[in-house]
Amino acid sequence: GSLTAVTVFAIIAVFIVGLDLGIDFRGGVRMEFSLEEEASVDDIRSVVSEAGVLEPIVQSVGTPATGSAFMVTAEDMSQEQIDAVKATLTSEYGLDDKSTAVEQVGASFGRSTTNLAFVAVAVAVVLIILYMAFRFELKFAIPAIFALVHDVGLTLGIYAATNRLVTTATVAAILTILGYSVHDTIVIFDRMRENTLLMKRETYGDMVDLSIRQTMVRSINTTVAVLLPLLAILIFGGPTLKDFAMALTIGVVAGTYSSFFVAAPLVT
User: What is the pLDDT of residues 116-129, one digit of tens each?
Assistant: First the structure.
């Protein structure tokens, strides 16, 4: 049930609402800057739009000692438009020129980044299937993959639903989630394999229930230990680190949950 609900949510969010891909994947221009005066995301969006930039994505990226900092990404932003935005920001909000950075990514480079991201995730999944089949049996490997689909689907679904930008840091986080989730699932599968030999008279379902109870405290402790530094990054980190930590936080919680409530029931 949980797997079905998450899958439906992920499909609706990713394919209907849509993922906001960063310029690393689409190509385009990224502009980062700090202001001396306070400004809202809407203020900055109107400044950038008035300069003639089409469909800019504006993100607040934390507050320096005074004022505020933003990241603007757009598929196309000419030098004239960049200069116009800088001039308006300087006069209205006090642009900190030293903190301003502009970065351009070509469309073909963006496409190759996207392809490499897909290849990286696909290779990771194939290696995990092979490892699980070698370490246990194929009947254990397939539920583990369903648990991974649950974790990655939930992460991407939340990203799409909340309009968070997907960057290369998000891909790195997804690869990390795959590893973490499988590690958590292996702990339970190992206990199930031990208990299969010890509990010959009980039903398979009872044996799995006991295995989950025996490993749950250890898994929760591990998850809390992982979440503490992630929360510190979410509170104090820079934009790229926060991006990585956000995806990882969702994935780690989902990975712990799915090991107990997706992978183990599917084996049963």
Answer: 988 998 998 899 88
